[in-house]
Amino acid sequence: MMLVITIVSLLMLSVPSSNAAISCSTVIQDVRPCVSYLTSGNGMPPAACCSGAKALAAAVTSTADKRAACGCLQSAARSLNPKPALAQSLPGNCGISLGFTISANVDCTK
């Protein structure tokens, strides 16, 4: 009987949690087409960038997802140094809402 309980416990631990937040690799993959636009572009974002932003918006459904995505984007921004105005206007220019403001000063925990 103890063996059955142990096996069931191990199986439960190996099942992915539905509460798991989006991964940074998924966030970066979605916004990768936006990098050159955000660092040296102007005007409206390219279609590929908006497609990626829309994929990200569709993927961040929970509060945990939004917090994780926000943190990933902040971390990426530190190394990429995007133009702040382009980053902040990206969701609106692509017709989406991420549920958080894209800004170096936003608190991703809220």
TrEMBL record:
SMART domains: AAI
GO terms for MF: lipid binding
Domain Bifunctional inhibitor/plant lipid transfer protein/seed storage helical: 24-108
CDD domains, per the entry: nsLTP1 (cd01960)
Alphabetically ordered keywords of this record: Lipid-binding, Signal, Transport
Keyword Protein biosynthesis among UniProt keywords: no
Keyword Membrane in record: no
Sequence intervals crossing the membrane: none
Record GO biological process: lipid transport
Signal peptide range in chain numbering: 1-20
Entry similarity comment: Belongs to the plant LTP family.
Function: Plant non-specific lipid-transfer proteins transfer phospholipids as well as galactolipids across membranes. May play a role in wax or cutin deposition in the cell walls of expanding epidermal cells and certain secretory tissues.
Name this protein carries in UniProt: Non-specific lipid-transfer protein
UniProt organism field: Ambrosia artemisiifolia
